[in-house]
Write a sequence for this structure.
């Protein structure tokens, strides 16, 4: 299957700092990428849809100024958690759609964020 | 609003047994349905993708079926192995935004 790389896999930061997570599609171009958040023993919650060259579409209840998404190229989307607080600690996962907006989705390995 | 339900939430079987995982969705106007596997602390691995026009897909010991009209899909795992132990997630792509809606998953344990 296609490969999606997510970096870093783990990050620990102090409260008030910002953290950037990268999501790359290594062997295909993805006009659309998705960002999810997952709490322990729960399923994935869609945060936002990232479209190359345009503004991201955020789900209801997700603060766009808190979670900045940039999709500057067809192979890279970034999620920046700004002024992180302990309640932002979570598992963040990205996915990229191969073959258009309804193509098969491939997921990164996830990023575990811990805010102290 | 699309809702996806997976039953059972957890399942424990002895090695070698065949098993079926169930997924149901409320809005039958879907683009496709995808089954994933997630190991603890890891991302998701795509297992099978079924387009809305298809009835089933097979990959190795896995077979997924789709009955769009009744809003159901099943994942059949033949001759289960301890390495199959993981959480299995069903997700459907639907809506004008073509977003993916996940079920809560079935945690499978295959006992040696």
């Amino acid at each position: 299957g296609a490969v999606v790389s997510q970096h870093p896999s783990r990050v620990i930061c102090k409260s008030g700092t910002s953290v950037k997570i990268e999501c790359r599609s290594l062997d295909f171009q993805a006009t659309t990428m998705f960002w999810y958040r997952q709490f322990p023993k729960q399923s994935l919650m869609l945060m936002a849809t990232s479209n190359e060259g345009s503004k991201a579409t955020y789900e209801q209840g997700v603060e766009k100024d808190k979670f900045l998404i940039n999709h500057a190229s067809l192979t890279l989307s970034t999620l920046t958690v700004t002024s992180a607080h302990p309640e932002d600690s979570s598992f963040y996962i990205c996915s990229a759609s191969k073959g258009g907006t309804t193509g098969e989705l491939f997921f990164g390995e996830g990023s575990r964020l811990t805010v102290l | 609003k699309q809702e996806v339900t997976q039953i059972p939430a957890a399942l424990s079987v002895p090695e070698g047994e065949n098993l079926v995982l169930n997924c149901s969705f409320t809005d039958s106007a879907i683009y496709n349905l995808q089954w994933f596997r997630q190991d603890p602390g890891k991302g998701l691995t795509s297992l099978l993708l079924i387009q809305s026009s298809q009835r089933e897909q097979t990959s190795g010991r896995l077979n997924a079926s789709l009955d769009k009209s009744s809003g159901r899909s099943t994942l059949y795992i033949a001759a289960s192995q301890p390495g199959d132990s993981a959480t299995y997630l069903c997700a459907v792509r639907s809506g004008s935004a073509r977003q993916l809606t996940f079920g809560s998953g079935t945690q499978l344990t295959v006992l040696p």
